[in-house]
């Protein structure tokens, strides 16, 4: 939620910031703004409601790329910051767009998160006669910094920021500039992410390395409650009290090409096609000397052996991956697994202790609901294992063990390659636990691991075979009002995920059901020509389930539904009941969700495209949800 970028260096700041915001738009696209500062022109702010292009349209025009000449500060300045917003406090209008300024116009701030005590601070400022120019929680921070700076000009902007963050409650990552300090920017981090990019004579700060990957792959991760002062020559990091703080430098292991569309119309379509690689990359290197190893493990084998119950917590698509974790872990480890949406978990006081393992799944590693579930679990002494796609994000940092998915950056707001990578990572966790508990011998673990490795090829075959026919089907069904999705066993989470993708991208009413539940109510929804997508189990390993699902298809067909069936290649029994048959390769039961979800991802993207929607940026959504 909300993307932040800051720059100090020698390039034209405006251009660096706008390019950075383009890569951060996935974090929010309700409005955007930049503030630049230079020694002569002072502070200049430009903001616009709507997508980034609206901002670009109101920016002073630059003659040459990277030039630092021109009449306005915006064109000369080599220091500044930008913001792309996902609105929380106040509607997405020009006046609520960031950066916000103090009353003198000397301080500007951008913010990601929520300042929970903003109402009290606002009242305090208003009582002092300050007129607030926006409805946001953010603006108070600009006024407070301006006040602290005037009270202690010798302390500089950094001291003023420290004094201000000491008064704030909630989650806030803030970046400030001051017209009297044109050569520096100061940022503070609590909860929402912030990374520093280290260049040659230039420094960056951003919510995500994608914002500065064009310029440098050397980065420093900021910890909780840290303040960083950036000048062109470097960064000074302290804690909120001014003590030197420890940071973790890292090198970004992907390059600019990974953050580009690579010839596709949408990032999502590129990301769908990247799944064979992201599955292989996620598995790679995790079987060492016959043992499955995680990326980080701060738990002893004995602590893991003491686990007698597993909770999986996650949101949205990651929750669907978690549902699949249950099948694998219970099957391989014979211990009970409960899967719960993270936003519900801590509010119902779950029974947790040292022998409980909480597996938190999050692509971003910063989803507030999941993070709070992790914190609650740790307070209750449960062990936490994170599955995450973002190196060093808050959820893995606060966990006892971590397995990273190596899906690379996912820019499309709808999760695709990170979903399948999460599923495979869940299976790896299942194997790691099975070997620790002794419920699987080393040769069995190695066999299962090899089976998982075959998923990349199977998914590649699906992509080759189904993308084009699924596109045609999507165009045909795009005018439908609603679509239902049915599945059983591991096909049930696939049905839920197929429905979620269609809802969020095509704004269409879509529901996923366990097919056996149909007769307990949802069958009343079936009417003439309603498209129903059915995820069939294999007729071989799961013959009984297959039979039952065939009966379900007959029931809905008899009531006039249009049946779209995802079935194993060679499953002839289903052909007479499928108006559209989507054939996927025969794979083991646990891999079936991987091959079956690919056509549903393509379907949702193509229906959305046929309806004229922006596939990468569905309305009202943002990629990282850092508010509860
Ligand atoms: C749907 C989608 C969301 C996320 C959810 C959790 O396509 O992307 O449902 O899965 O917001 O996000 P992470 O995995 O970052 O915790």
From TrEMBL:
Source organism superkingdom: Bacteria
Protein's cellular compartments: Cytoplasm
UniProt keyword annotation of Cytoplasm present: yes
Primary location: cytoplasm
Domain SIS per the UniProt entry, residue ranges: 300-439, 473-618
Gene Ontology terms for molecular function: glutamine-fructose-6-phosphate transaminase (isomerizing) activity
Catalytic activity: D-fructose 6-phosphate + L-glutamine = D-glucosamine 6-phosphate + L-glutamate
Name used for this protein in its record: Glutamine--fructose-6-phosphate aminotransferase [isomerizing]
Species annotation: Actinomycetospora lemnae
Designated gene of the protein: glmS
């Amino acid at each position: 939620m909300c993307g932040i970028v800051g720059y100090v260096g020698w390039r034209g700041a405006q251009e660096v910031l706008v390019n950075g915001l383009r890569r951060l738009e996935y974090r929010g696209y309700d409005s955007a703004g930049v503030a630049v500062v230079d020694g002569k022109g002072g502070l200049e702010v430009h903001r616009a409601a709507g997508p980034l292009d609206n901002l670009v349209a109101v920016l002073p025009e630059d003659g040459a790329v990277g030039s630092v000449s021109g009449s306005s500060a915006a064109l000369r300045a080599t220091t500044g910051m930008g913001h792309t917003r996902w609105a929380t406090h106040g509607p997405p209008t020009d006046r609520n767009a960031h950066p916000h300024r103090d009353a003198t116009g000397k301080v500007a701030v951008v913010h990601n998160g929520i300042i929970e005590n903003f109402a009290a601070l606002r009242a305090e400022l208003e009582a002092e006669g300050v007129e607030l120019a926006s409805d946001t929680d953010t603006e108070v921070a600009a006024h407070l910094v301006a006040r602290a700076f005037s009270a202690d000009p010798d302390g500089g902007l950094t001291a003023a920021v420290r004094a201000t963050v000491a008064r704030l409650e909630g989650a806030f990552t803030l970046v400030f500039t001051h017209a009297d300090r044109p050569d520096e920017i100061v940022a503070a981090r609590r909860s929402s992410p912030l990374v520093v990019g280290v260049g040659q004579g230039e420094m960056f700060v951003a919510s995500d390395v994608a914002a500065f990957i064009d310029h440098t792959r050397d980065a420093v991760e900021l910890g909780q409650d840290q303040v960083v002062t950036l000048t062109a020559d470097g960064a000074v990091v302290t804690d909120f009290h001014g003590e030197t703080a420890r940071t973790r430098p890292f090198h970004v292991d992907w390059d600019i090409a990974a953050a580009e569309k690579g010839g596709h119309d949408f990032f999502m379509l590129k990301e769908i096609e990247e799944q064979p690689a992201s599955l292989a990359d996620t598995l790679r290197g995790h079987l060492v000397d016959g043992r499955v190893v995680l990326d980080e493990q701060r738990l002893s084998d004995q602590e893991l052996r003491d686990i007698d119950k597993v909770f999986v917590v996650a949101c949205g698509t990651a929750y669907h991956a978690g549902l699949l974790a249950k099948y694998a872990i219970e099957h391989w480890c014979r211990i009970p697994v409960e899967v719960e949406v993270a936003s519900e978990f801590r509010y119902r006081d779950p029974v947790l202790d040292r022998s409980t393992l909480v597996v938190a799944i999050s692509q971003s590693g910063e989803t507030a609901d999941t993070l709070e579930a992790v914190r609650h679990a740790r307070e209750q002494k449960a062990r936490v294992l994170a599955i995450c796609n973002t190196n060093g994000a808050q959820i893995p940092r606060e966990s006892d063990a971590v397995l990273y998915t190596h899906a690379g950056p996912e820019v499309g707001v709808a999760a695709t390659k990170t979903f399948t990578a999460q599923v495979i990572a869940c299976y790896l966790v299942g194997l790691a636990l099975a070997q620790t508990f002794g419920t699987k011998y080393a040769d069995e673990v190695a066999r299962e691991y090899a089976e998982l490795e075959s998923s990349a090829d199977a998914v590649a075959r699906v992509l080759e075979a189904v993308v084009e026919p699924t596109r045609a089907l999507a165009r045909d069904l795009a005018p439908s009002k609603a679509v239902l999705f049915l599945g059983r066993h591991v096909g049930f989470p696939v049905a839920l995920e197929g429905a979620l993708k269609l809802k969020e991208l095509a704004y269409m009413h879509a529901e996923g059901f366990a097919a056996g539940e149909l007769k307990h109510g949802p069958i009343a929804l079936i009417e003439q020509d309603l498209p129903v997508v059915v995820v069939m189990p294999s007729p071989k390993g799961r013959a009984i389930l297959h039979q039952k699902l065939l009966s379900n298809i007959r029931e809905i067909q008899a009531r006039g539904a249009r049946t779209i069936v995802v079935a194993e290649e060679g499953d002839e029994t289903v052909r007479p009941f499928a108006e559209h048959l989507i054939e996927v390769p025969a794979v083991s039961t646990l891999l079936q969700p991987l091959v079956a979800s690919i056509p549903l991802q393509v379907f949702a993207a193509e229906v959305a495209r046929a309806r004229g929607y922006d596939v990468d940026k569905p309305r009202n959504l943002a990629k990282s949800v850092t508010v509860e």
